[in-house]
Amino acid sequence: MRECFEIRDTDGAGRIGELSVPRAGVTVETPALMPVINPHLRTVDPAALESDFGAEILITNGYILYQSEEFRERALNEGLADLYDFSGAIVTDSGSFQLSEYGEISVTNAEILEFQRDVGADVGTPIDIPTPPDAGRERAEDELETTKARLEAAESVDVGEMLLNAPIQGSTYPDLRASAAAHAYGTDLDVFPVGAVVPLMNGYRYAEMIEVVRAAKGGLGADAPVHLFGAGHPMMFALAAAAGCDLFDSAAYALYARDGRYLTVSGTDHLDDLEYFPCSCPVCADHTPAELRSVSETQRETLLARHNLHVSYRELRTVKQAIREGSLFELLERRARSHPAMVDGYRELLDDAAALERSDPVSKSAFFHLSADSARRPEVERHHDRLGRLSVDGDRVLLSAGGDNSRFDETWRLRAPFGPVPPALSDTYPLTAERPERLGRAGYEAAAEGVGRLAAANPDTEFAIAHWGWPDSALGRLPESVETLLLGPESEYSEGA
C-alpha cells in the first residue's frame, strides 16, 4: 500500500505530507505527533486529545492490551476506536520495547499481528528486535536478521486494511541501518519507524541520531513515511523534521508530568524551580507555578501533561508553517541554540547538504544568515554546484564586493557566503539573503569555495576578486591564479559561532 503517503511541501528534507489510513477512513497530515496512550494510565483522556489538541493519530501498546485482564476482552469486543473514544488513526506497538527491557515476551509475531488486527488497529507492528546503540557488530547483525525475517513473515499475515510498520534497526552502524531500510522498503509494508534511538536522545547524542536517520533515509524511497520512535520532546521536532522524519510518538508529555517536569521548546524545567510560566497555553494562563504546586498530585500531573501537550502541538504547528513558507532552517538555527548537543545535531545534518539540496525548493521567501552554520545550508551548496557548471564571457572577469573596473571584460558581484553572483541572478533567491554586518569568517570561506568552483569551470579565464578585508582563512582558500584587490582598509570581522 505504498501509495498511502503523498508529499505536499518540502524544505530541505523536511516535508508536509498526507498519510492515508484506510482502515480508519482518515488522512493524517504529517509531520504528526502520536501521543502514547497506556490504557491503565490515562493521564489525558484520548477523546480530549482529539477535541482539545486536534490530534489525528495516537499510539498504544498492543502487547499491553494483549496481556491486560482489564482491557483485552473489551478491546476485542469493542475495538480500539470505541475503547478510546477516538475517531482518528490508532497505531499499535507489538511489545518490542518490553522485549528489549525484559528479554522475552509471551506472544509470537503472527499472534500479535492478528491481535492488533482483531482489536481494530489502523497501523500495526511486527515484533522487531531493538538493538541498542553501541552494541557489538555481531549482535547487531544477528538481531537485524531476525527483524528482517519477521518483516517478511508479516507480509503473509492476513491483516485486512491495517497498515503495517516496518521497523528499521541496526544499532549505531550506518551501513546496517541503510541495509535494514532498503530491505524494509522492498517489502509490502507501509510505514518505516527508525527504532532504538531513545538512548541516543536520552544521552543528548543528537549528532549520532541524525547519522542513524540519514542512513535509514538513504535506503528508503521518497514516498516512505518515516516514524522516529520515541522522539517526544518538542525541542527536537524541528531537527527531526528537517532530517526527513514524518511521525513522532510522545510518552514524554505524561512521563515528564509524573515527575513534575515542564516541557519547553528549549528544554525541560522542573515545576519546583519555576516562579513564572513562560507559556500562555490554557494551563499556564489559568495557574501560577505556586498554584500548580498546591493542588493534588493527580490534578498536578494532569495539568502538567496538558501543558506538555499544548507546547508539543504548538511546536509541531510552528514546524509545519516553517516548512510551508520555506523557513525551516531559520527555525532550526534558533532551536539548535537551546543546547550544545542540538548544535551538534544541526551540524551533522548540514554535513550532507548535498542530499538536503535534492529536495529543497529552489525558491523561498527569504534566506536569513544567522550564524557560521548558515554558510553550509543546502542553498549555498546548490549555488556552488551551479557555479561549477557556468561559463563566463570575456578573458578577464572581476568578482567584486563593490564597484566595477574598466580593466576587466565583465564584472560579477561577490556576495558571501555564496561567492560569485551572475548579474542576471543578483535579485533572485537565495542571493538576496539578509546578512549581519559582521558576517563571520565561515561566510567568507564559503564564498571563496564558490570562487574556486567558478574558476575551475573556466580555466582559460583570468579572475580577480575585489574585497573589503576578507580574513586570511578565506583568502587562503582561493586558487593561486585568482588575483586579489583590496577595496578599502581591512574591515573587522567576527569569528562567529
From TrEMBL:
One GO cellular component this record assigns the protein to is:
cytoplasm
Binding of Zn(2+) occurs at C279, C281, C284
What are the binding positions for substrate in this chain?
Answer: D128, A196
One molecular function GO term is:
zinc ion binding
Q: Which InterPro entries match?
A: ArchSynthase1/Queuine_TRR (IPR050076), TGT-like_sf (IPR036511), TgtA (IPR004804), tRNA_ribo_trans-like (IPR002616)
Identify which cofactors the protein needs according to its UniProt entry.
Zn(2+)
All copies of domain tRNA-guanine(15) transglycosylase-like, residue ranges? 13-340
What keywords appear on the UniProt entry? Glycosyltransferase, Metal-binding, Transferase, tRNA processing, Zinc
Instruction: Extract the SUPFAM superfamilies matched here.
Output: Pre-PUA domain (SSF88802), tRNA-guanine transglycosylase (SSF51713)
Among the GO biological process terms of this entry, one is: tRNA wobble guanine modification
Catalyzes what? guanosine(15) in tRNA + 7-cyano-7-carbaguanine = 7-cyano-7-carbaguanosine(15) in tRNA + guanine
Task: Tell me the first and last residues of the signal peptide.
Answer: none
- Record's cofactor remark: Binds 1 zinc ion per subunit.
**One family name in Pfam for this protein:** TGT
EC assignment: the record states: 2.4.2.48
Q: What does this protein do?
A: Exchanges the guanine residue with 7-cyano-7-deazaguanine (preQ0) at position 15 in the dihydrouridine loop (D-loop) of archaeal tRNAs.
Cross-referenced HAMAP family, in alphabetical order?
TgtA_arch
State the PANTHER family in the record. QUEUINE TRNA-RIBOSYLTRANSFERASE (PTHR46499)
Instruction: State the family it belongs to.
Output: Belongs to the archaeosine tRNA-ribosyltransferase family.
Name of protein: tRNA-guanine(15) transglycosylase
Q: Which organism is it from?
A: Natronomonas moolapensis (strain DSM 18674 / CECT 7526 / JCM 14361 / 8.8.11)
Gene (name only): tgtA
